[in-house]
Specification:
The complex is a heterodimer of chains A (304) and B (294). By secondary structure, chain A is mainly alpha-helical. Chain A has 16 helices and no strands. Chain A folds into two domains: 55 residues, no CATH class; 227 residues, MetI-like (MetI-like fold, Orthogonal Bundle). In chain A, helix 5 crosses helix 9, helix 5 packs across helix 12 and helix 9 packs antiparallel against helix 12. In chain B, strand 1 and strand 2 form a beta hairpin. In chain B, helix 3 crosses helix 14 and helix 4 packs antiparallel against helix 11. Chain B is globular. Chain B starts with a helix and ends with a helix. The chains are: A mainly alpha (304), B mainly alpha (294).
């Protein structure tokens, strides 16, 4: 599908090239074709598992096991969706809500804390500032198990294991978000503006809330988006601190469903695949809607 | 006035500092503390367990634990194959995109980033099912082509997981390298072309050296991730336990020690060891790559 689209674009491509890049003559037609073939192959490799997943979600059990995996056979998408949402009294919906709760609320709180910290680190000079920044960068190297196991013990000592708090509290402190927030502050908040506001008599908190936060909308959105994706994708932390089904995330629930065939002989492959497709949808919508933000986030975070 | 302003600035970082102490420093300290003790069952196992201080014994045990050391070796070897391969593909794709107009490039870039949008666990679910001889199309395709491959065979685990990680990672790494490429001053290419350099030569002598920093960074991030690999093998194990043992990767061993064997002290020691190894590996990689640059 996409393959033919790509190849038919080629003549138009060359016309545009000549306009935007003045020196195409040195690159032969053969070279250009080679590049496009390579990219089309890579695109096919990237897309075919997703295509397979979409096709699989429309099949009933017989078709899933017996028909060609890359093409449709019957249309059972609505049945499958119905099954996913009603299986075990609709636990899937609960998991979805949990994932949204942890990723949404956790990232919102984490982003606010990160923006304040990034602003403090970037625009004030106080003793210990370098030490804090060293902690932020050093924590990138800490293996997740080294934090998660003792956190589990601390949470169980305080009775928070198996409650939403065990997921929400760790999300509030995200060193990578702090790092990004510092980089964005340095790029967007000029010293002069802060000075002017101070001369006008604005308090520091007021400056932060009504000037800095407003100017940092783009940076803040990026930080939030990356934190949201991170929490939505988390697996080791929820696996460790959430025990009861009703607090699980989507990832954890789907993982559990994949194991039932060997554990109790119930084959949930169809449900798992439909559920997997559903769990991608919010990510896809968010990524596309906020494309502008996360592209800068990915690259800025990497280049600094 | 300046002095008071400084402290107001510091106040903005207080929530983070508190959180960092409670969610990073305290747990790490607690893990180190726990790692110095061990639980012993009394004589007949009736009197309950007692906790004893054993110094560095758990670390000694960890360093001579063949299952743990093997898992580290396994992951390191795998990293040495998969990461260069993945970064090479990402670099090639980034160079390809860089040679196209920005409009065409941006379309390809979005398509190539689709795998990155998919959560790791879901990506693993999709690929495990693609590999599956029951539901997946790959076995049938292999048969049609004359291959009798079995992705669940123990010898195929690393290629299977490697392909999954590569699929998941190339888009992300490509974007980082591509954005570094965008920073190369275009005049350099013009000058090189005037001197009669071929496009291949320009890529090799100008573009690749210029994105060296991005390659080091993506390499470092990949190493950090790889030493901690857990989700993908855990999911494989969930579906085909005969393919992946429960001591396949370091984190799997740590998880089992903590939650299946109930041996928190030992698990704590192993996670400290893993942190040290991770730090050492990152340091060595950084030294090695920055030395070459001189």
């Amino acid at each position: 599908m996409t393959l033919t689209e790509r190849t038919t674009e080629r003549p138009e491509v060359r016309g545009v090239r000549r306009l935007s890049q003045p020196d195409p003559a040195s690159r032969g037609r053969g070279g250009q074709r080679f590049l496009l073939v390579g990219l089309v192959l890579a695109s096919a490799y990237s897309l075919f598992p997703v295509w397979w997943l979409i096709v699989a979600a429309t099949k009933d059990r017989t078709a899933l096991y017996q028909s060609n995996g890359l093409w449709f056979s019957g249309w059972h998408l609505w049945d499958n969706l119905h099954q996913v949402f009603t299986y075990q009294d609709g636990i899937f919906l609960r998991w979805t809500a949990n994932s949204f709760l942890y990723a949404g609320v956790g990232s919102l709180g984490g982003t606010l804390i990160a923006l304040a910290t990034g602003y403090g680190l970037a625009r004030f000079d106080f003793p210990g500032r370098n030490a804090i920044f060293a902690c932020v960068v050093g924590s990138f190297l800490i293996p997740i198990a080294l934090l998660t196991l003792p956190l589990y013990l601390l949470f169980s000592a305080t009775g928070m294991v198996d409650t939403p708090w065990a997921m929400l509290i760790p999300c509030l402190i995200n060193p990578f978000s702090v790092y990004l927030a510092k980089v964005y502050t340095e790029a967007t908040i000029p010293y002069e503006l802060l000075e002017a506001a101070r001369i006008d008599g604005a308090g520091e908190l007021r400056i932060f809330c009504s000037i800095v936060l407003r100017m940092m909308t783009t940076g803040g959105a990026t930080v939030f988006l990356l934190a949201f994706v991170n929490t939505w994708n988390a697996f080791f932390l929820p696996l460790t601190v959430l025990r009861g089904k009703e607090n699980w995330t989507l990832n954890l629930g789907l993982y559990n469903w994949t194991g039932t065939r060997l554990e109790s002989g119930i084959d949930l492959t169809g449900l798992v695949l439909t559920g997997a497709l559903l769990s991608i949808v919010p990510m896809a919508i968010m990524m596309v809607a906020m494309r502008r933000y996360w592209r800068t986030g990915v690259t800025l975070g990497a280049l600094k | 006035m300046i002095r008071s302003m400084r402290w107001k600035g510091a106040a903005f970082t207080v929530p983070f500092q508190l959180g960092f102490v409670f969610l990073y420093l305290l747990p790490i300290g607690y893990a180190v503390y726990e790692s110095l003790f061990t639980e012993r069952q009394s004589g007949l196992g009736l009197g309950g367990a007692t906790t004893e201080f054993v110094g560095l014994d758990n670390y000694g045990q960890g360093l001579t634990d063949s299952a743990f050391m093997n898992s580290i070796l396994r992951v390191v070897l795998f990293a040495c194959v998969q990461i260069p391969l993945m970064l090479l593909i990402s670099l090639l794709l980034a160079l390809f995109l860089d040679a196209l107009t920005s409009r065409v490039a941006s379309r390809f870039r979005i398509v190539l980033l689709v795998p990155y949008m998919i959560p790791g666990v879901v990506a693993a679910i999709v690929w495990v099912n693609l590999y599956s001889p029951d539901v997946g199309p790959l076995t049938a395709i292999g048969k049609a082509l004359g291959f009798d491959w079995n992705f669940f065979a123990p010898s195929m685990v690393w290629p299977s997981i490697g392909n999954l990680l590569t699929w998941h990672g190339i888009g992300y790494n490509m974007v980082i390298i591509y954005s570094a490429l965008q920073g190369v001053p275009r005049e350099l290419f013009e000058a090189a072309r005037l001197d009669g350099a071929s496009e291949l030569r320009i890529a090799r002598s100008i573009k690749i050296p210029f994105v060296r920093g991005a390659l080091v960074l993506t390499g470092l991030l990949s190493i950090i991730q790889m030493l901690q690999i857990f989700n993908e093998p855990a999911l494989f194990r969930n579906i085909t336990p005969q393919t992946v043992s429960d001591s396949f990767t370091p984190i799997m061993i740590i998880y089992n020690q903590a939650f299946n064997a109930g041996n928190y002290n030992y698990a704590a020691a192993l996670s400290v060891l893993l942190a040290l190894i991770l730090g050492l590996a990152s340091f060595l990689f950084y030294r090695l790559t920055s030395k070459e640059a001189d």
